[in-house]
Amino acid sequence: MKFSPTKLPDVILVEPDVFGDNRGFFMETWHAEKFAKGGIVADFVQDNHSRSGQGILRGLHYQINNPQGKLVRVLNGEVFDVAVDLRKNSPTFGKWIGIHLSAENKKMLWVPPGFAHGFYVISPQADFFYKCTEFYTPENERAILWNDPDLAIDWPLVEGKKPVLAPKDEAALPFNEAEYFD
Question: Which one is catalytic: 49, 61, 120, 136?
């Protein structure tokens, strides 16, 4: 496996070894010892799987208490995956990284606690899978506006159309009003 820090060094791109032939392929998606050597030490407590259609944007979500680290990947389709650093004392506070994740490229992204996370579906449909280090607690969930001008995330919107959002994402706070991590 290859582990590469991104421009936000705590967010790590994981490229698994893929062994394929005419029958299909095999790859490890989690191996605690290999991930620890790659800089990712995590105890996962919850797995989630979502399916979304093209143009749907989920995020930018985080939990202010019990922050979740997430190891994310795409099982079907393609998404643009985004992490935003919300740690006030970090040299990359308020910065974001966006990575194309797809079933084809098989890349994974480690989004550690202290980051907001979201993704936008580029393909006709996408199945998105993520392992979490903390349980989901709705009372602690927060959201930052996907198109906040202070963040200026360059979402690759299909045909330039506004994404489809859940009501909680429509009502998300701008970055400058969000709760951050110390």
Answer: 61
CB 113 within 8 A of CB 67: yes
End-to-end CA distance of the chain: 32
Task: Report the number of distinct structural domains present in the chain.
Answer: 1
- Of 31, 130, 136, 180, the active-site residue reads 130
Instruction: Quick: pLDDT tens for 58-86.
Output: 999 999 999 999 999 999 999 999 999 99
| Boundaries of domain holding 132 | 2-19+43-177
Tell me the pTM.
0.95
Catalytic site residue 49? no
Residues of the chain with pLDDT under 50: none
61 counts as catalytic = yes
Question: pLDDT at position 32, please?
Answer: 96
Q: Give the domain CATH number at 95.
A: 2.60.120.10
Q: Is residue 34 part of a domain?
A: no
